Predict the structure.
Amino acid sequence: MDKEVAIVGYAQTPYVADFNESREMMVLQATRAVLENAGIKREELDTIVTANNDYLDGRTISNMRLVEPAGSWRKNESKVEMDGAFAMLYAVTRILSGDHDIALVLGESQASVYAGILPGIMMLDPTFDRQRWLLNEVSAAALQASAYMDASGVSEDQISGVAAKNLDNASRNPVAMRSIAGADAKKVKASRPLYSPITELMMAPQCDGACALVLASGKAAARFEKPVWIKGLGFAHDSYLTERPLDTMSSLKMAADSCYSQAGIEDASSQVDLAEVYERFAHEELMAYEALGFCEPMKGGAFFDSGATKMDGKLPVNASGGALGANVECAAGLARVIEAAMQIRGEAGDHQVQGVKTAVAHGQSGICAQENMVYVLGGE
Amino acid sequence: MAAKAGKEPVPRVSMPLDPPFAWSVGNWIEHFFDGMKEGKIRASKCPSCGRVYLPPRMICERCFSRADDWVELPVTGTVRACTKASVKVAENGDMVDLESPEIIAMVQHDGADTCIAGRLEADDASIGMKVEAVLNPKAENALDLLAGYRPAG
Ligand SMILES: [Zn+2]
């Protein structure tokens, strides 16, 4: 899908434990910033898609009262109850319909509002798993990690290493919430044990924040500076977590394969310059290396050990610190797209990687990455 | 741009509701529960592809058909994933430390194609370990009919 839809503006609020402002003012901050970044006025928006979630907000129609701060009064407006990377898919299809030229996509939530990891438990099957109080997002991810480690031979040290890399990268990202400059794997492994092998520093931290981008049709993009083109996109979902093998992210692979065929990527390991991956837990980044075709199946640990995914490696992954630096539900996947676009535009500041022309961005939703979304982005 | 340094926290209000939902478990899970009252493990089977679902599912996602054949499975199975829990989730959503760690395992019963997550009464566990279900046929709460798992034999 060459030169049909472009990213022409982006913005992120700082990601923080408690924004100490209403959700509406947080969204207004993101919307105003993204319009300024794109150099457009609210009147020029044709369609607005937000990502937010009723059970995170404790109200139905969680986009209610976001009409004002998202600039969508009397405009074509809708929402997606998943990660913002999926809201972006919705906005892209609206532009491809030919009915709209300029779209705003926004993802937001406030962890300071909802009760810890209870919202994740609401994703479980309510006729059996939910009431038994054993599975939750973290214990499920630990089960996923154990299956993956058994199948691949990946070690706790390697998983800790991924978290250390991302926490160190996050120290150069001004909007990240959690960072540890010079973090080492030992510190990650020795942090508070949750569900083995997962320790506190291997789990993405819940926080408040909003991010947004402006999309333009190929025709409309001509008047913007430095458009970042969507070269391909793919999405796929998988079975409920007890009904699928947990040692592989097979729906991420399906999403990537479909995306790469649109983007003309035959060998991701040589054609992709940088990736932003939505790793809700450190081991998921290793699993994503495999599913995204950066290395062979079950070789994620060795690929990490090669140093390829470090800031100065041949394929840096999560130069921003990824979700381990800040995990806003409904926003963190969209933030991966924004970070990838910033890298292509050369605007990533202290965490800029040189010479990024083609980048992959990944979003996910659901327990153990049940749904996955992949984009390939490129510059001129 | 966010919370200004030194700024007073904004006041908060809490939700006054504790909305009580009650789901029908459907005839399949009911049949599964009724079986455990007699010490039996009942799984549903897709008549079209033969996939065996435990816990029983009503519909085979692969065939788009009703999974309405039934098979009785042994209490034995294999650990496919496991974790040692150092915490549990409190009612307010926080993870609080357990006094002593417990094992949660994903168990595939012999003859089933899917897994059940359950507590495993063991000091340690590993993938591939053979386990058996511990049933509690007299349990008042249907969800306690399957008490958990223990090492087989
Ligand atoms: Zn079937």
About this structure: Chain A touches chain B through 48 residues (CB under 8 Å). The mean pLDDT of chain A is 96. The radius of gyration of chain A is 19 Å.
